[in-house]
Design goal:
The chain is an alpha+beta fold. It has a single domain (about 5-290), classed as Cupin (Jelly Rolls, Sandwich). The chain has six helices and 14 strands. It has a seven-stranded mixed β-sheet with strand order 2-3-12-9-14-7-6. Helix 3 runs antiparallel to helix 4 (about 80-90). It is globular, with a radius of gyration of 19 Å. It starts with a strand and ends in a 5-residue tail after the last helix.
C-alpha cells in the first residue's frame, strides 16, 4: 500500500446548481465528458490543423529532469519549431513537453473554437488560456498552481494519466519550503514508501483523461500528470470568489515566486539541500502526528 487513490466523479453534463453545490463550493474535482461537445475544437484541433495554424514558431521545451537549483522553476531544456515538435510527439515517445503556451497569441482565430463554461462559474481569466503538449513518457511534476485558480483542463488527441491531492496533504507529500512543488525524488505513480514513509496512506484522486474530457481542478489542488500518448491539453483558469483566496494568490506570487527564485539563484545547491532537509523534516513530523486528519 502507498497512496490511497479514489476514482474521480464523472458526468456527461451537469447543471450550474449541481456543479456549484457539489463541486465548486466543497472544492471537489470532477470530469465532465460532454462539456466540449459544442466546441468546434473537439473535432477541429487535430495535430495537422494545429501545425498549420501555428507553423514553425520556435517554442521552449521541458523534460522530466529534476529542476536545477540555480535556475527558475520552469527552466527550458531545449527548443524546436512547433510543427517539428508536433511531428515528434506523434511519431515516437519523448520526454519533451510544452508548458503554458498561449496558442491564441500565435493563432487568434482558435479562440472561436472554444466556449468558456461561464454557465458553471464566472471569473475566467480570459487573458491567460494556456496549452500544454507532451509526448508519451513526458511527466508534469507534482505541484499546485502558484496563483491558486480553479482550472478547467480539457484534453485532446490521446490519453493522459492524472493524480490529484488536496492541499491539506502538502506536508506529507514532501512539499518544499517557499515553493508550490514537492521533492522530485519519488515516482508519484509508484512511490517508494520505505524511502519516503510519509507518503503511506496519503489519499488522492486518479483519472485517465481521454479526448474531449474536461477535468475541473479546484483551487490549490496538487496535480501530477503523465502523457500516455503524444497529446495536448487546454487549461482555462478562473478566480475563486473568496477574498482570502485572492490574497493568498498574491502572497504566493510574491513569496513563493519572486523570493524563492532569488534565493535559488543566490545560494544554488546549498539552498536546494536545505529545502530538501526541511521538506523531509516536515513530512516526518506530519506523519508522526497523524496530520492532516
Amino acid at each position: 500500500m502507498s497512496f490511497i487513490l479514489h476514482p474521480i466523479d464523472t458526468v456527461d453534463t451537469i447543471s450550474p446548481a449541481d456543479f456549484t453545490e457539489n463541486y465548486l463550493k466543497p472544492r471537489r474535482p470532477l470530469v465532465i465528458k460532454g462539456l466540449t461537445k459544442s466546441w468546434p475544437a473537439r473535432e477541429k484541433w487535430t495535430a495537422e490543423y494545429l501545425k498549420e495554424v501555428v507553423g514553425n514558431k520556435v517554442v521552449p521545451l521541458y523534460d522530466n529532469s529534476k529542476a536545477d537549483p540555480s535556475k527558475p522553476i520552469n527552466a527550458r531544456a531545449a527548443e524546436m519549431p512547433f510543427d517539428e515538435y508536433i511531428d515528434l510527439i506523434k511519431s515516437k515517445p519523448t520526454e519533451l513537453r510544452i508548458f503554458f503556451f498561449n496558442i491564441f497569441k500565435q493563432a487568434p482565430e482558435l479562440i472561436n473554437d472554444i466556449v468558456l463554461p461561464k454557465d458553471l462559474m464566472g471569473g475566467f481569466i480570459e487573458s491567460m488560456p494556456a496549452m500544454f503538449f507532451g509526448g508519451s513518457n513526458s511527466v508534469t511534476f507534482l505541484h499546485y498552481d502558484i496563483d491558486l485558480p480553479h482550472i478547467f483542463h480539457t484534453h485532446f488527441g490521446g490519453r493522459k494519466h492524472v493524480i490529484l491531492f488536496e492541499n491539506k496533504w502538502k506536508r506529507r507529500l514532501y512539499c518544499l519550503p517557499n515553493a508550490t512543488y514537492a521533492l522530485e525524488d519519488y515516482d508519484v505513480a509508484n512511490p517508494d514508501t520505505k524511502k519516503f514513509p510519509a507518503l503511506e496512506g496519503v489519499e488522492g484522486t486518479e483519472v485517465f483523461l481521454e479526448h474531449g474530457d474536461t477535468l475541473f481542478m479546484p483551487t490549490g489542488y496538487w496535480h501530477w500528470m503523465k502523457y500516455i500518448d503524444g497529446s495536448y491539453s487546454l487549461s482555462l483558469r478562473a478566480w475563486d470568489a473568496s477574498l482570502t483566496r485572492k490574497a493568498a494568490s498574491l502572497y504566493n506570487l510574491a513569496m513563493k515566486g519572486g523570493v524563492d527564485s532569488l534565493l535559488k539563484m543566490a545560494f544554488k545547491g546549498d539552498y536546494a539541500k536545505y529545502r530538501e532537509k526541511v521538506a523531509i523534516k516536515w513530512a516526518n513530523r506530519a506523519l508522526a502526528t497523524g496530520r492532516p486528519h
